[in-house]
Amino acid sequence: MGSMMTKMNPRIVEITERIRERSRDSRQAYLEMIRGRRPSDFARRRMSESSLAHASAGCAVIEKTQILGAGWPNIGIITAYNDMLSAHAPYQDYPEIIRNAAREVNAIAQVAGGVPAMCDGVTQGFTGMELSLFSRDVIAMASAIGLSHDVFDGAMHLGVCDKIVPGLVIAALRFGWIPSIFVPAGPMPSGLPNPEKQRVRQLFAEGKVGRDALLKAESESYHTQGTCTFYGTANSNQMLMEVMGFHLPGAAFANPGTPVREALTRAATQRIAMLHAQGDAYLPAGEMVDERSVVNAVVGLMATGGSTNHALHLPAMAAAAGIILTLEDFADISAVTPLLARVYPNGPADVNHFHAAGGMGFLVRELLAAGLMDGSAMGVAGPISEYGVEPYLNDGVLSWRLAPEESANTDILRPVSDPFSKDGGLRMMDGPIGLGVSKVSAVKPEHRVVEAPAIVFDSQEALKAAFDAGQLERDFIAIVRFQGPAANGMPELHTLTPPLAVLQDRGFKVALVTDGRMSGASGKVPSAIHVSPEGSRGGPIAKVRDGDVIVFDAERGVLDIKVDPVEFEARSADEYRPNDSGMGLGREMFTYFRELAGPAANGASHFKFSGRGD
């Protein structure tokens, strides 16, 4: 592999240092916890004979022999496999590939546990979406249960999509005394071009095509095994795992079922087998990930115009390692990080085109050379300075070569010297209504500033009904409130994109302000999302009234209201009244999640291990 070190951007150094200083106490407490758990021998040697018998009873003879007596490290597999969802279906065969690869290097691998993997694409606009965000913390807890048997010297995490990877990362960091590696499945091959899919969705929203045409377009887009090919949360996850060092270099976007994908899985197995505490290359996950890793993740997110969902997930992931990340950090990193990629919804290309243009190797190489990414941070394959490479098969043997020096398509991927934009894809939005984020990388400059009267909605269904009734043919800013984690679990509101996009295309000035989420694939229409504090907890978004003039300025990060400040402060917040009882489809089982969820600005997590006391 190649390496690259350069002088760091002074602003990135400054931001990293302030995160380190802010996190000093909580990070120290975290490190003391994981260092106190470091085993003096293979983990299973602490167990009783009865415990070992239970842990090995279902194994093949070779694994049973090694668990009971010999000196091979034991790797625990946490898998999000299911055969309903395209992104996770490829994992069906991974345990056998991993077991065989482990045996070749004198290691054992066992499936330690499975975690749920729900698809926002299935539940989008339906009641099940109210469980989506909280599934992240369920996944973290399910992973912890699998690893709690405490017989593992390393862990392999098999997961791809929206909440799955953040949940797995949280668990990997809470078991931070053991090494962890993430093994992706890869994106499906390209199908119907994303702009055509978007066009059909808008036609359906206008009633100009029927459901048959819409289903045909959707099926041609999502057509086989693998991750969806747009650059939403799932593929942003894979980018993050690479720049944070949880992947082997170049693992993110190789397609499922290809020889290089299987070779990467085998190589990941054999690499994690080298990192255990009894070897010479011990690399516990909680020591590998530090403040530099977290800043590298935000830099990668900004440079690629990644998913807004990571304004929730990255703070929650960082907190699991005792690191306190704020929206101000996102905004300040965005201000100095150029936008280097245009992948749908930020442009017509998909992640396969991005990969072919130079992909992660080119991106990392550019960011390292510009001093925006800290190459001294560690990854499972070595320092991040060595991640500006791409994998290939050389006579069937997995090898790495330096990433290309030039992009194969500058409409998709550009160097730092010629970016799409001088700054990144996200803005922090702040003002009397609350604190939120806006994804501007997919929004044309002429749509980023809107000043218009508010129309207040208490649900996405109410907005869509008003659109269908022809009541929204005007300039307005939609205030969709009572959509935060404490209200209904903070479902994505992606189904609002087609009607609002139709109105924007008709020449109206429109924007969305909400305490809910939008899809990682949402774009085109300006939006301020994750507005905190949320309306159901008395946040000022619940004080906005129909007709109030809202100033939405994503260029300056301003979310203002033209109401006398004294009058606005004196208003009482409207009370949250759920549309139903919150019962059914398992929602009643998540009552305590809603009650205990933290604010969106801190990741909307109910875990309390960050040291912030929130």
Automatic annotation (TrEMBL):
Q: Which InterPro entries match?
A: 6-phosphgluc_deHydtase, Dihydro-acid_dehy_C, DiOHA_6PGluconate_deHydtase_CS, ILV_EDD_C, ILV_EDD_N, IlvD/EDD_N
> Membrane as a keyword?
no
Q: Pfam families from the entry? A: ILV_EDD_C, ILVD_EDD_N
User: EC number(s) in its UniProt entry?
Assistant: 4.2.1.12
Tagged with keyword Lyase? yes
Which UniProt keyword terms apply here?
4Fe-4S, Carbohydrate metabolism, Gluconate utilization, Iron, Iron-sulfur, Lyase, Metal-binding
Q: What cellular-component terms does GO give this entry?
A: cytosol
Give start and end of each Dihydroxy-acid/6-phosphogluconate dehydratase C-terminal domain.
Answer: 411-604
Family per similarity comment: Belongs to the IlvD/Edd family.
Any idea what job this protein has?
Catalyzes the dehydration of 6-phospho-D-gluconate to 2-dehydro-3-deoxy-6-phospho-D-gluconate.
What this protein is called in its record is: Phosphogluconate dehydratase
Organism lineage reads as: Bacteria, Pseudomonadati, Pseudomonadota, Alphaproteobacteria, Hyphomonadales
